[in-house]
Inverse folding.
């Protein structure tokens, strides 16, 4: 039986309100629509809905499990814009998060505050956002992250290098077949960086069995039982790690409570721990085993690890596991380019509100909504998009861009 | 002989749809009625709004509604749905804009037009008594006018507000529609074109005898709100250039994107706004993104009355690069709101709005220079605006009505 490493992602973007060309230069808030007539704050509405269905019940369950099982470990990543919205819309979740942080059984991962694609465009902006995220985690929950996961697990050699320079112990990404060529995704790798940054790879099959297929009635394994899932995991030997990385909203939102997802998870944790030799781990426990940190003995022996050499960026999204969900068509390419071209002028403005708006526009979801891919991927994109179609996502975004430019004049 | 009784056949009337045709019918009938013309105005749907200056006759067949939702197993209606239930048959409740009508499947389009003709024809007895002349607006009404002429012997005037040639842009267009247009104009006693530009199209593309065609330029009603020009509305810090119209090939909106690119090369802060909706929308978005114009060309979607005024008030330059435009009322509206206008020479409005800058739609270099001059030279801009305002004195529905009445006389006298 291998080790199991859970990582859950918590993120909500600031979606654009129905801004129009008539709002350019009038101080209308892009995200809440404040300043416009009859404009409801959709972000608040969506957040409250997801909090009700997923965040509150699942965080409560996780806290219960942490208290019940002293050897239940997991990791999660909360984007900065997610935390802001927790504070604004569902502050009752903060004490639960604090208790989880205090338990020492939960690892909080580092990421960009704005859940952005900055790593692909601006190393300096990337580092600032990672620092900003680390600070809010510390200030709000008292946790300083030591392992990193980039937006949507986007990864390549250059990004790994940036992460290493920031001093993180290791990072998480997707196990992509075309870079594994038959190698296991259940062992740590080293990235092609100066000091060989360790990397953990997502086990897509087993992660998606829960995240995507759990309630799929046409799936042969439906309904998924704990026994069946354990059997699949037990195939791997003890020294290996099954990395189950998924959206936190899997629990209660993508898979509704009536699918039995919460009871499944609770029963899985208990059943897994029933066997003495089974272990839950968090990324940092793999990257730097705590007890050996000072004497540097028995630490992760990098000389025994294979290299995960990735030139073109990969991610955990869509069938191709590349970045075409966010950067593929002219809408995405041009808006991203224009936005990052503004970096120096925005920062020189010394206008905190302007800088914040610019950064909120960097959130990857905006570009995800502009994706024009079709078939199964298109369905997933449509599920998440608040707009009627990718063209509308682009149209609104250009208005926000034009307004940013107006404010810089 | 000066005060005629007119039976007018229309297709839409405000507030239903905001197409140019309905607006023109309103302006023209109001002016004609002031000029002692008695009008009965036929519409293919129930019209409940009160109109004082003429009598509106809803020419609907009571069975249209009955047939809707009914199971009919005989042709031609059975073809409209697989289960034989009529869903899309002429609905007497709603108007259907000519633009949408044009895009219907051929069989349905033909049926709608023929049904209208049949219903009007069936009332010829009562119509005949109070009618000196039949006046039909655009192709949708021509078959009805022909039927009525045949039954009553009254002269028929075909009023051409736009042609299939304009609407098709550089495409082939709908042959069925151009056939109806040709047939209608051939059967008509007189033809009224909204501009000399349109008249020449009718002569050259449709082979209509020039002697038979009178030109009556459209007028323009005075604006509903006071013009409030200036940059105090939005986007105060940058020059704003506006396109407003349907996003179709014949409106030349694709040239507007190209113009944006060339103007931005020397005036990088300029903001270009495309107002309207249409079949080229997605293509235009993509073109704009591909040309790196995402933050400089914005799409407002279709704009309604108040926003329309605000946009025209705000615009520093209004551009209408139409490939073919019978008239182009929106250019007059821009002029009314003190905005300098650049119009295509292929737009009828250029014959009356002399103060505007008229250029060939394909001459992007000259267009670019003209936009830049209007942005950079306030004196030039002011001069264009004031010349345009002078022109407006002559662009009235009263003038149009005078021309139309002359046409009636010619038709009645058989000249």
């Amino acid at each position: 039986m291998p080790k199991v490493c859970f990582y859950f992602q918590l993120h909500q973007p600031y979606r654009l309100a129905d801004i129009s060309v008539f709002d350019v230069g009038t101080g209308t808030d892009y995200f809440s629509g404040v300043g416009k007539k009859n404009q409801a704050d959709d972000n608040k509405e969506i957040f409250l809905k997801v909090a009700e269905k997923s965040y509150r019940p699942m965080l409560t369950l996780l806290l219960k499990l942490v208290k019940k099982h002293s050897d239940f470990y997991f990791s999660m990543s909360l984007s900065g814009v997610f935390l802001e919205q927790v504070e604004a819309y569902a502050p009752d979740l903060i004490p639960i998060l604090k208790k989880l942080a205090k338990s020492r059984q939960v690892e909080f991962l580092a990421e960009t505050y704005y859940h952005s694609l900055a790593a692909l465009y601006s190393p300096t902006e990337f580092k600032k956002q990672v620092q900003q995220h680390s600070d809010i985690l510390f200030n709000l929950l008292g946790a300083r992250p030591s392992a990193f996961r980039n937006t949507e697990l986007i990864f390549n050699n250059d990004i790994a290098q940036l992460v290493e320079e920031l001093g993180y112990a290791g990072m998480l990404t997707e196990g992509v077949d075309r870079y594994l060529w038959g190698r296991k995704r259940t062992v740590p790798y080293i990235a092609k960086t100066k000091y060989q940054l360790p990397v953990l790879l997502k086990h897509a099959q087993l992660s998606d069995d829960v995240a995507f297929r759990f309630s799929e009635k046409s799936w042969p394994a439906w309904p998924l039982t704990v026994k069946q899932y354990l059997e699949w995991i037990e195939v791997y030997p003890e020294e290996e790690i099954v990395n189950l990385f998924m959206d936190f909203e899997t629990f209660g939102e993508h898979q509704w409570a009536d699918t039995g997802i919460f009871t499944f998870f609770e029963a899985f944790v208990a059943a897994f721990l029933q066997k003495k030799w089974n272990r839950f781990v968090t990324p940092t426990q793999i990257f730097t085993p705590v007890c050996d940190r000072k004497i540097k003995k028995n630490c992760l022996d990098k000389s025994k690890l294979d290299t995960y050499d990735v030139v073109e960026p990969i991610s955990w999204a869509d069938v191709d596991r590349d970045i075409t969900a966010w950067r593929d068509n002219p809408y995405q390419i041009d808006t991203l380019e224009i936005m990052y071209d503004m970096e120096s002028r925005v920062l020189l403005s010394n206008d905190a509100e302007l800088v914040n708006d610019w950064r909120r526009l960097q959130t990857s979801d905006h570009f995800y909504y502009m994706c024009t891919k079709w078939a199964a991927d298109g369905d997933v994109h449509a599920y998440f998009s608040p707009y009627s179609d990718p063209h509308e996502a682009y149209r609104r975004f250009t208005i926000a861009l034009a307004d940013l430019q107006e404010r810089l004049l | 002989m000066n005060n005629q009784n007119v039976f007018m056949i229309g297709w839409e009337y405000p507030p239903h749809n905001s197409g140019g045709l309905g607006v023109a019918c309103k302006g023209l009938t109001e002016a004609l009625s002031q000029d002692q013309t008695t009008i009965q105005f036929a519409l293919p749907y129930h019209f409940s709004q009160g109109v004082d200056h003429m009598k509106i006759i809803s020419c609907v067949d009571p069975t249209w509604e009955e047939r809707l939702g009914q199971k009919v197993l005989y042709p031609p209606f059975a073809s409209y749905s697989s289960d034989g239930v009529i869903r899309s048959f002429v609905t007497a409740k709603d108007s259907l804009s000519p633009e949408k009508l044009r895009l219907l499947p051929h069989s349905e389009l033909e049926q709608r037009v023929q049904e209208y003709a049949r219903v009007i024809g069936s009332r010829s007895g009562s119509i005949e008594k109070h009618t000196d002349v039949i006046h039909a607006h655009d192709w949708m009404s021509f078959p009805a006018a022909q039927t009525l002429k045949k039954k009553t012997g009254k002269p028929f005037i075909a009023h051409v507000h736009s042609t299939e040639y304009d609407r098709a842009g550089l495409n082939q267009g709908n042959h069925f529609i151009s056939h109806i247009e040709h047939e209608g104009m051939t059967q008509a006693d007189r033809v009224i074109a909204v501009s000399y530009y349109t008249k020449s199209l009718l002569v050259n593309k449709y082979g209509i005898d020039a002697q038979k065609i009178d030109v009556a330029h459209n007028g323009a009603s005075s604006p509903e709100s006071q013009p409030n020009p200036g940059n105090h509305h939005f986007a105060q810090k940058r020059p704003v250039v506006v396109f407003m119209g349907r996003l179709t090939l014949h409106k030349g909106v694709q040239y507007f994107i190209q113009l944006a690119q060339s103007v931005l090369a020397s005036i990088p802060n300029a903001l270009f706004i495309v107002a309207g909706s249409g079949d080229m929308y997605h293509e235009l978005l993509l073109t704009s993104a591909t040309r790196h114009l995402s933050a400089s060309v914005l799409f407002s979607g279709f704009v309604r009355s108040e926003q329309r005024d605000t946009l025209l008030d705000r615009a520093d330059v209004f551009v209408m690069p139409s490939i073919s435009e019978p008239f182009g009322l929106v250019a007059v509206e821009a002029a009314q709101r003190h905005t300098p206008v650049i119009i295509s020479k292929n737009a009828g409005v250029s014959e009356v709005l002399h103060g505007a800058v008229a250029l060939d739609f394909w001459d992007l270099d000259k267009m670019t220079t003209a936009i830049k001059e209007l942005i950079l030279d306030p004196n030039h801009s002011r001069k264009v605006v004031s010349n345009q305002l002078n022109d407006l004195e002559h662009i009235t529905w009263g003038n149009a009505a005078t021309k139309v009445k002359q046409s009636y006389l010619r038709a009645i006298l058989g000249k």
Residues 330-408 of chain A form one domain.
